[in-house]
Every structure is written in structure tokens, then in C-alpha cells.
Amino acid sequence: MARDVEAQLNYIESLISSVDSQIDTLNKAMIEVQSTIDLLSNGDLASSPEKLISIGSGLFAKGNITIDEDLIVPIGSGIYVAETKERSVERLKKNLEDIKASIQKLLDQRKTLVDQYNTVYATEATRNVK
Question: What is the average pLDDT across 78-89?
């Protein structure tokens, strides 16, 4: 196999790996967003006798959470706004759809890269047979 073809295949493999990593990251984000939607949508939090609140670095404190009042939501650049639980759920559902759309775009890119890899590989294999 020619060096330039091998380099091209290695490059395509690295792109596929990068896309796979991005898909994995987005899948994890999607799970987190869905969990938050579920938490805000059902009454389990209110009926739970013990609530643990993350205070960072893997530490938790017992506390009370009231989600019937406005939630404090970051909107960027250190700015926060108050938002109703219902509005937060709507926003999170939109975020979830955006994540799904991004995953689909990445899956399409991955398919294109795999097709490109297979084409380069098959072309080189055909050349070597002759």
C-alpha cells in the first residue's frame, strides 16, 4: 500500500474516531438532560424524604429543594434568570431536540467518512491486484 494512501486512511480513521468521541459526549449530555426533564416533570423529588444537594467535588449536603418556585437558570456570561419549572422543562426539551439533531448530523458525517475510507481502501486494493 502506498504511503500516501496509508496516510489518507489513517487520517480518515482519526476523523472517524473524533466524530465517535463527539457522539459519545452528546449521548451523555442527552441522558443528563432527559434525567433533568424527568426529575422536574414527576413528583418524586417533592415526595422524597431525603434530598442530597451537590456542593461540588463529589460532596453532597442534605437539604430541601423547592421546585414549585422559580428555578435559577444560567443564560451565559455569569448571568442568571428566574424561570418557572414548566418553562425550564420546555427549554430542556428543545435542548434535547437540538442534541438529537447534532447527533444525527455527526452520524451522517461518520457514514460519509466510512464510505470515503472504504472507497480509498477498495481503490488501493484494486490497484494492487492488477
Answer: 93
